[in-house]
RNA sequence: GGGGGAGUUCCCGAGUGGCCAAAGGGGGCAGACUGUAAAUCUGUUGUCUACGACUUCGAUGGUUCGAAUCCGUCCUCCCCCA
C-alpha cells in the first residue's frame, strides 16, 4: 500500500497506508521502545510535536509487561492510547546491543534478560508472534544486527542465516495474517552485510525475492565511519525494490537523514534526538547546542527563535539550563518535545521540498548546518 | 573556671613523617551518545614561563635530610562538667 506521489532526483515523496492511518514519507518515526518516549512524553503529546508514527520494541515489551498483557488491553494502540501507525522492531537490534547477554544459533537467539537474567529464546517465529499480539501496523523481520568491524566471512555467514530467518518470519507472518491474528500487519525485511557492498547486494537480491511489503537497511551506525555508511547507501539503494518503502534503521543525525533521503530512503528512526535532548543537546535551525553550557545561564532566548514547538513558545534557555542542572524531570520532557518537533518538522519541510523539486537546495542549505555545533 | 574534640584544596570528607597537589563524594566546567540495559558514560577541576617548577592542608615559630602529618604559642568552633 505504498504509493510514490513524486520524486526529486533519487528522493521520493510517498504515502504508506496502514490500518491506523497514512504515513507520509519521508518520515521520521518517534522511538517509544517500552511503549513510551523516554523523557516523559505520552501519546497525548505526539500531535503537538507532529509525530506521524511511533516505534516500539518486541524484546523489551516481551520482557515487560509481556505481549499478552498488551494484547488484552487493546494492543499497543489501546495500551498506550496512540491511535496512529505503530512499527515494532523485532529484537534484532538487541542481538547487537545486548551482545554480552545472548547466544546465537540457527534456531534463534538465546537472551539472558538484562532485567533478571532469565533465559528468553527469541526466534523468527516467536518475534513475529509477539509482534502480532502487540498489534503493530508494521512488523520488522527478526535479523542479526552484527557489529562493525566484522570479518567478511562472519558477515557472509550471518546474512545467510538472516535470510533463512527472514523466510521463517515471512511464513509466520502469513500464518498470523491469514489466521486473523493481525490481518492488517505488514512485514518489512531487513538487509544486512556490514560495510561489504558485495554482501549487501547479495543479501538484497535474496530478500527482495520474497516480495515483502517493505525493506529496511539494518546494521548501519554501529561503528562504521560516515564515509563507509554513505558508500553502502550509494551502492545499495539502487538495488532495492523501487516501488517498496525503504527504511534506514537507526539513523541518524539530521545531516545523515537528509543525505539518505536524497539517496532514496523513505523511513527513518533514531534514538538520538530523544537521548540527546535528555542530555541537554538540542537542535536549532542554526546548529545544535548544549543547553548545559555556561553561556546559556542567563539567556532569555528560546532554544530556537524560529521554532514553534511547545517548549520554544514558552521557555528560555536559561530556564531549561536550570532545570537540567537541578535534575528536574521537566527538563527532559521539554527538551525531548523540542528535539522531536525539530526532527518531525524537518521531515515536513523535506516532503514539501521534494514536492517542489528543490530537495538539493534544502540539502545544501541545511544538512551541514543542522549538525554543526554552535 | 575545669575536661575533651575539631580546623585539609569551591563544599563535604580521607589522610597522622617521605610513594601527597593530597583518596572518595558533591558541586563546577567540558565532551560523547545513531533499529534505547543510557535522566547514562567520559574527561577535567591550586598556579605557572607547564614531560618541569612554584604555592597550598586555621596562624605563627620550631624539630627533621624531609611536615597536612611531630612539638610550642596563638586564633576559631563544637561537646561535657561547674
Brief descriptors of the model:
374 residues, alpha/beta, eight-stranded parallel beta barrel, RNA-binding
Strand elements, count: 16
Gross morphology: globular
**H/E element sequence:** EEEEHEHHHEHEEEHEHEHEHEHEHEEHHH
Residue fraction in strands: 15-25%
End-to-end span in angstroms? 42 Å
Percent helix range: 40-55%
What order do the strands of the largest sheet run in, or round the barrel if closed? 4-5-6-10-11-12-13-14
Give a quick account of the main beta sheet: strands, pairing sense, barrel closure: 8 strands, parallel, barrel
* SS class: alpha/beta
Low-confidence stretches: none
Overall radius of gyration: 20 Å
Question: What's the number of helices?
Answer: 14
Could you report the average pLDDT, rounded to the nearest whole number? Answer: 97
Offer a quick outline of the entry.
With 374 residues, this protein is of the alpha/beta class. It has helices at 43-46, 58-63, 67-72, 75-79, 92-97, 124-134, 152-178, 197-208, 226-236, 254-262, 272-278, 317-326, 329-355, 359-371; strands spanning 2-8, 11-18, 21-25, 27-31, 54-57, 86-89, 102-104, 109-112, 119-122, 138-140, 186-191, 214-217, 246-248, 267-269, 281-284, 287-290.
How would you characterize this protein structure?
The protein is 41% helix and 19% strand. The chain is an alpha/beta fold. The strands form four sheets. An eight-stranded parallel beta barrel has the order 4-5-6-10-11-12-13-14, surrounded by four helices. Strands 1-2-3 form a three-stranded antiparallel sheet. The structure holds one RNA strand of 82 nucleotides.
